[in-house]
Structure formats: C-alpha cells, structure tokens
Amino acid sequence: MPGDIHRSDPHSRGTRELLSVVRGSLKITVGSETMTLQAGEAARLVTDQPHSYAAADDQPVSFSMAVLERAEET
C-alpha cells in the first residue's frame, strides 16, 4: 500500500530475486541503487545487500517475487 516500505537484510552471497510487477508502480532499492518498475515490467536483482520495496506513488502495487538463495559454503 502507498506509504508502506518492506526492508530486507542482505541474503546469503549470490542470492538472486526475480520480480514482476502486476499492478501499479514499484520502487526497489538495492544497496545505493534505486529503480522503479511499472506494471508489466520485471527485474532480476542480486540481493546479498540491504534492499527494500515500496509503492512508488499513491496507488497500491502488486508484484510477484521468486528468490534463489544459495546455501552458504562451509
């Protein structure tokens, strides 16, 4: 919803996320980089650093996300 921000701590090294915006406009911040995706757009992100998701305007946003988190090496 507008005004909501979901913040996430870094995932394990090499983690990838694939996001696809279904409705609205999504502001994504990964580290110090920010991008905005519109409905119908998608992005592949490396999320082994702090990241966040928020509605980019005053309208609700819907998006799907797939996360590939690799196991830590021991």
Any overview of this molecule?
- The strands form 2 sheets. The chain has a 4-stranded antiparallel β-sheet, with no helix packed on it.
- The termini are far apart.
- 0% of the residues lie in helices and 55% in strands.
- The mean pLDDT is 94.
- It contains no helices and 7 strands.
- It is mostly beta strands and 74 residues long.
Q: Indicate the proportion of strand residues.
A: over 45%
Q: Determine the mean pLDDT.
A: 94
Q: Spell the H/E element sequence.
A: EEEEEEE
Assembly status: single chain
For the CA atoms, what is the radius of gyration? 13 Å
Number of contiguous helices: 0
Low-pLDDT residue spans: none
| Alpha carbon gap, first and last residue | 40 Å
> What is the structural class?
mainly beta
- Helix percentage: under 10%
Count of beta strands: 7
The biggest sheet amounts to: 4 strands, antiparallel
Shape: globular
- Can you list the strand order of the major beta sheet? 1-6-3-4
